[in-house]
């Protein structure tokens, strides 16, 4: 990151067609105590901006050719040089360096996620635009949710973006890329803010797409115009007859892929107990994939305490099914222990935590939920240091019993899963709250 002039780097908001700083700022993490900041928009300003939008919207000319502008913006986002308020000219390597410095996201993941944004836009059908002022409130775990910004930009009169304070750089870059592609400045906004400001943004926009964890889901005012993307609680169903090596090869990317940052990552692995348990799932199930096609958007909260299987009541380790499950879990743990912490690793690159306390808090949330009889199967030390920051390595826990276990569906911002033997009743209970249920391809 770099500033336009000497002094602290403060990432600006974008309001009323201009990049603007603010008297209210929040600190962003950075290497060696670098003073990075984020300009915050108070709720009173949000209210005033909505009134100005009502005045300005009638004079805006129709916006045609939106898809072409969006495709150009995504290309600039990935590989172009754009001007970001407070940061100045930002090339693709500057962008990747900024994400690594402030959010701990390595370059290979940035490349992958940029490709996902482009592919999703290309696959989505074009939508007719309406007169709504839309809001997209983003999570901090992955920038692939910027797809919702692109979607709302195509279908709305204007879209205001509320970035996560944990990772606002990607949202600011997308706004800059849209502007560079020719998007009308009054039709896009960037509104960083305190948590309570979100409620004001929801109140003063016409349509809202909000990402977040369990706590946010409980706090946001519900309305027919609001779409809330909460925890995904990904779940994988392993048939009893599936060979261990095949099961490990199938499960490894579901657990470790994207550094465990996506809501579609698997958090619970259910091993068939020898009966036809995989046929007893609630709802519909995907084939070699998740039930919800939006599962790769990274919407899940980090560290929510809800149990996804509070009603599950099966013993996790009895009989031959328990022995098969233990063998699978042990082999998967070996594979997870082999995942490299090298941020340039080609297979399953891991993120680091620029806020060390957040790393230890997330790790404690797993250990504190373990019960007597549970076994931590991954053997490496939980945390290693990469570039002066903690990297939490993959964790795998074999559960002794399923009944009301708080680790079922538990989401953290690193690769983690709980494994247990499951009867049909356990499967039905565990999958009832899961948005993403995976089965191996037949």
From TrEMBL:
Organism domain of life: Bacteria
Compositionally biased residues, Low complexity: 277-288
Segments for region (Disordered): 277-314
SUPFAM superfamilies: ALDH-like (SSF53720)
InterPro entries tied to this protein: Ald_DH/histidinol_DH (IPR016161)
Descriptive protein name: Uncharacterized protein
The species this protein was found in: Streptomyces alfalfae
């Amino acid at each position: 990151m770099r500033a336009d002039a000497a002094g602290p780097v403060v990432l600006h908001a974008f309001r009323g067609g201009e990049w603007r700083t603010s008297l209210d700022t929040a600190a962003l993490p950075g290497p060696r105590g670098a003073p990075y900041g984020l300009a915050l928009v108070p709720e009173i300003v949000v209210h005033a901006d909505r009134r100005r939008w009502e005045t300005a919207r009638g004079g805006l000319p129709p916006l045609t050719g939106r898809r072409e502008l969006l495709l150009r913006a995504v290309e600039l986002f990935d590989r172009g040089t754009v001007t970001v308020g407070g940061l100045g000219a930002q090339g693709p390597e500057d962008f990747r360096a900024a994400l690594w410095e402030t959010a701990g996201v390595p370059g290979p993941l940035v490349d992958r996620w940029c490709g996902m944004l482009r592919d999703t836009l290309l696959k989505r059908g074009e939508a007719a635009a309406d007169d709504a002022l839309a809001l997209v409130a983003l999570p901090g775990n992955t920038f692939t949710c910027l797809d919702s910004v692109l979607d709302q930009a195509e279908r709305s009169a204007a879209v205001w973006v509320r970035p996560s304070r944990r990772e606002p750089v990607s949202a600011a870059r997308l706004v800059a890329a849209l502007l560079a592609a020719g998007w009308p400045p009054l039709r896009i906004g960037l509104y960083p803010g305190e948590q309570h400001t979100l409620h004001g943004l929801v109140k003063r926009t016409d349509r809202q797409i909000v990402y977040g964890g369990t706590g946010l889901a409980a706090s946001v005012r519900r309305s027919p115009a609001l779409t809330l993307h909460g925890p995904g609680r990904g779940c994988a169903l392993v048939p009893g007859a599936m060979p261990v090596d095949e099961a490990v090869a199938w499960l490894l990317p579901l657990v470790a892929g994207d550094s465990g940052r996506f809501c579609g990552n698997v958090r619970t692995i259910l091993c068939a107990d020898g009966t036809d348990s995989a046929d007893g799932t609630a709802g519909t199930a995907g084939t070699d994939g998740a039930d919800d096609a939006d599962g790769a958007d990274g919407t899940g909260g980090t560290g929510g305490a809800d149990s996804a299987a509070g009603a599950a009541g099966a013993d996790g380790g009895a009989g031959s099914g328990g022995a098969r499950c233990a063998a699978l879990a042990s082999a998967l743990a070996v594979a997870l222990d082999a995942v490299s912490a090298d941020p340039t690793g080609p297979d399953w690159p891991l993120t680091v935590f620029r806020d060390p306390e957040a790393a230890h808090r997330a790790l404690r949330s797993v250990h504190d939920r373990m019960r007597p009889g549970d076994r931590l199967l991954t053997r490496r030390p939980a945390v290693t240091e990469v570039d002066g920051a903690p990297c939490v390595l993959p964790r795998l826990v074999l559960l002794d019993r399923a009944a009301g276990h708080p680790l079922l569906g538990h989401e953290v911002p690193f690769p983690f899963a709980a494994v247990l033997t499951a009867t049909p009743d356990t499967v039905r209970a565990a999958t009832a709250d899961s948005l993403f249920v995976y089965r191996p391809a037949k």
